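Q: I'm writing up a methods section and want to include an example of the input and output format. Could you take the sequence below and give the corresponding predicted structure tokens, formatted cleanly so I can copy it straight into the document?
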Amino acid sequence: MMYDHHRERAKLRWTRSFLSTFLITLAVIYAFYFIPVPYYIYKPGTAEELKPMVSVTNGDPEEKGTFMLTTVTMGRSSILSLLTARLNPNVEIRKKQEVLRGSSEQEYSTRQEYVMLDSQGNAIQAAYKKANIPYQIESQGVLVMQAVEGYPAHGILQPGDRIVQVGTKPVIKHEDIVNEIKRHQADESVEVTIKRGKTEKKVAITLKDLNAIDAANGKPGAAGGESRVGLGISTAELLEIVPAQGDKKVTINAGEIGGPSAGLLFSLEILNQLTPGDLTKGYRIAGTGTLDTSGNVCSIGGIRQKIVAADREKADIFFAPADRKKGECNLSADVPNASDAADQAQKIGTKMKVVPVATMEEAVHYLETLNPKS
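A: Here is the clean output for your methods example:
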């Protein structure tokens, strides 16, 4: 009996030890795989053909090659993915606060969607200017970019909401909101009609004196100022570029791709459809670069990852933003985009040619002087 008793106790101790070890192992595995750490991992994304995304009414369809925008895949990291990323030379790791800059992930995502739309508008304008097609800019609505914490609209409006109406005033541009709110006093409730996704809804928001809130939060210069009644939101206008010639209307559908860096390649695809001939000359042309309405190409992030993405899709040419100095393109530091692109191309052993460009005009000139691909 004593032997059986000791055996049962030993078995119980073994069972408890096994369960403890098993649970600890599960906790460690869960932590490594699933608990997020405050870093984002940037990996090579895709090189997407632009012709299916861009349509010009009565445009020239000739395109033996292709223009491709390039993307970077960004995601939150776990301990395991972070450790793995450090071993991958084609991956970049960035701190969460450097990426979000004080905004929420939803606000960041909304901003990326908006700057993609903005980059498309810039690309259309730059292409119209190059093709000598007159156009005008029309406001098409207002988006909420941020509902500031501690202010009236926080928790009611969300980033990405489209403001349809404030009070009795339909909203087409930001001034419509400002002019309607001026008619009201602090602590009055105003009805705001928004479109969230595909659903339109009405919400009531009690207006507040924003200066008083600022003063209460200790913001310098807020106390003693005139009453500033408002919602406490930041907004952005949706713009449409309308050509004088109706048969030159440009439509872009980029799906869920976000960010501003496809501006240059959008402009080249648009110009190719606006004008006779084929700028691609039969080549697979990838690249990246933000673009202003005058056709200046400015720096972007993730150039090394985009080189890898373009090489995977067998691009022949990669347009990279020329190296920029501090102060150029409103930069706070030097950005050696073209140098980094050339270095990465050499490291991965690609045959793709990296071509630095400072303007859309330089990219067009390069293509126009290129011999057709045999």
